[in-house]
Amino acid sequence: xxxxxxxxISNLIFSYYELKDKLIKHRDSLNALTxxxxxILLLLFDGLKSKEIASKLFISDHTVKNHRKSIKSKLKSLxxxxxxxxxxxxxxxxxxx
Length: 97
Prior knowledge:
The chain is mainly α. Helix content is 76%, strand content 0%.
């Protein structure tokens, strides 16, 4: 039993440092986003669709789609899991309205 607990603790510690390394390695990826791109990214995480975001921000659907392309381009080296982790850990840094 102690062996299993020790292995679980070891795995948790490894996972923590792995995530911390990802955060440090990719922190500039989120910094590369503009204020508007961060706004849109957060709204996407809130579950809004492009048309809903456009309506909420008083911009066209086409503009939202362009921002989404730009976000994808800037964060292309990150997996969706990494993007979620970075946004969740740095959410307070965004100028969220």
